[in-house]
């Protein structure tokens, strides 16, 4: 059995499945990552898709990736309770090798309309995040991980992210999905070097790596620069493959490398062929570097003791600030309007450190929030 498995993010989407089919026919896909909570609009999962999931599940090569839990919501929401019940039921049906979620909180009142955006790194958010990770573990009884964020408001946040992830994960003995395109976004948007950035992450906690593509966005706030966005709708850039080459051997507990692309980026035959080529390039890098990985057969990411605490941790001040921030981002006609509103808001002179936020990243946050709202 290979030490590091080459995988795809495969969901119930005709374009994604069509792109994956040639790879499956050639028995190249060694594991599947499934966004188990993205089927909220589907009343009945087709039997053939369930069978596909079961096949990988039986081989312990199915991993679950959450999108909508909103880990850092200051208030414990009924939707989060329902999400956990759904996870518990799904984990009883399929043998997930692990379960992961996105870092951040979701903007938007509708639970399924929001962009995962950053939070202040404080004791309050740390306690909320730890509480939610314990609840995810209790629902699935599998190793639990978090994906690094593609979006930050300031260089200070970028530099503190890895250490905060480690603090969050420590009580559940959790792991990191190191999304290299997310890392690429941060490198480009804040002019920081890979060596400086990667040194800030606890790479012994990396169990999974994501690679994907994205897009460039012009900025009115900073006309001399383009903002890298994690839109998952294009091929993997050469720079991200280079990051993969540079990162694999540094992660002693790496088990999966996953190629992600959304179905809206896989409409044409050309795009599907590029997806196939991206997988082959990823597979070759994984094969070439896999022997340097010293992962053993035991699972290094299972909690060491019973975890569950009492009632869910909440912080209503944080929750009100999140609602206020979401409203500003979703309603502002421009980044200058958003910046003015932020300066008048309860986030001013607070742990959010909005005074350090880059105008071009506030502008990007407005675009993200308004895109998700639609």
From TrEMBL:
Domain of life: Bacteria
Organism in which the protein naturally occurs: Chitinophaga ginsengisoli
Gene3D superfamilies membership: Divalent-metal-dependent TIM barrel enzymes (3.20.20.150)
Name by which UniProt lists this protein: Uncharacterized protein (UPF0276 family)
SUPFAM superfamilies, A to Z: Xylose isomerase-like
């Amino acid at each position: 059995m290979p030490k590091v498995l080459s995988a795809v993010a495969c969901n119930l989407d005709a374009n994604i499945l069509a792109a994956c089919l040639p790879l499956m026919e050639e028995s190249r896909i060694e594991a599947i990552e499934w966004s188990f909570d993205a089927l909220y609009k589907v009343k009945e999962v087709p039997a053939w898709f369930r069978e596909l999931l079961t096949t990988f599940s039986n081989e312990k090569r199915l991993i679950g990736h959450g999108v909508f839990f909103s880990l850092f919501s200051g208030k414990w929401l009924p939707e989060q309770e329902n999400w956990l019940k759904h996870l518990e039921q799904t984990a009883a049906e399929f043998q997930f090798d692990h379960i992961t979620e996105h870092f951040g909180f979701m903007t938007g009142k509708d639970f399924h309309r929001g962009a995962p955006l950053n939070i202040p790194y404080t004791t309050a958010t740390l306690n909320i995040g730890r509480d939610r990770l314990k609840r995810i573990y209790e629902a699935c009884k599998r190793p639990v991980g978090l994906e690094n964020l593609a979006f930050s408001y300031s260089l200070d946040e970028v530099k503190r992210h890895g250490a905060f992830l480690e603090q969050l994960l420590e009580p559940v003995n959790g792991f990191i999905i190191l999304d290299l395109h997310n890392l690429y976004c941060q490198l480009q948007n804040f002019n920081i070097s890979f060596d400086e950035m990667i040194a800030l992450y606890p790479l012994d906690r990396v169990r999974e790596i994501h690679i994907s593509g994205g897009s460039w966005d012009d900025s009115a706030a900073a006309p001399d620069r383009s903002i890298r966005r994690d839109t998952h709708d294009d091929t993997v850039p050469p720079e991200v493959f280079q990051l993969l080459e540079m990162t694999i051997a540094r992660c002693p507990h790496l088990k999966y490398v996953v190629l992600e692309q959304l179905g809206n980026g896989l409409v044409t035959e050309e795009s599907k062929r590029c997806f196939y080529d991206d997988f082959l390039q990823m597979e070759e890098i994984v094969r070439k570097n896999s022997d340097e990985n010293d992962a053993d057969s035991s699972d290094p990411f299972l909690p060491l003791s019973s975890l569950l605490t009492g009632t869910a941790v909440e912080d209503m001040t944080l929750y009100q600030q999140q609602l206020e921030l979401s409203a500003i981002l979703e309603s502002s006609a421009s980044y200058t309007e958003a910046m003015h509103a932020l300066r008048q808001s309860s986030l001013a002179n607070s742990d959010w450190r909005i005074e350090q936020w880059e105008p071009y990243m506030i502008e990007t946050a407005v675009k993200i929030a308004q895109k998700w709202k639609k």
